[in-house]
Amino acid sequence: MGREKPILLPKHKKLLTELGENIKLARLRRKFSAEQVSERANISRPTLLSIEKGSESVSIGLYLQVLIVLGLEKDLSLIAKDDELGRKLQDAELRVKERAPKENSG
């Protein structure tokens, strides 16, 4: 019994497809074969091809393994780095204290 494939909206599927294409282009620019990358990432060649197609059924951990082989793992730290909407929502929830905290004069 296999896992169910996640259901994504077309615009979200397009994002994954673009990610897969970018990964494939990075591999080709480095002149790595699919066999080399899959072996170094410890995944099967069909799994690598699924990643390069932007498959939503491949775990993010496997995407990361391929990014590590390509030297692009630091790109993941850029995701949600500048969360402008999140900061605005957080700021809207902040409450201003009426008085400053007491100072401890020890």
From TrEMBL:
<dbReference type="InterPro" id="IPR010982">
    <property type="entry name" value="Lambda_DNA-bd_dom_sf"/>
</dbReference>
<dbReference type="InterPro" id="IPR001387">
    <property type="entry name" value="Cro/C1-type_HTH"/>
</dbReference>
<dbReference type="GO" id="GO:0003677">
    <property type="term" value="F:DNA binding"/>
</dbReference>
<protein>
    <submittedName>
        <fullName>Helix-turn-helix transcriptional regulator</fullName>
    </submittedName>
</protein>
<feature type="domain" description="HTH cro/C1-type">
    <location>
        <begin position="23"/>
        <end position="79"/>
    </location>
</feature>
<dbReference type="Pfam" id="PF13560">
    <property type="entry name" value="HTH_31"/>
</dbReference>
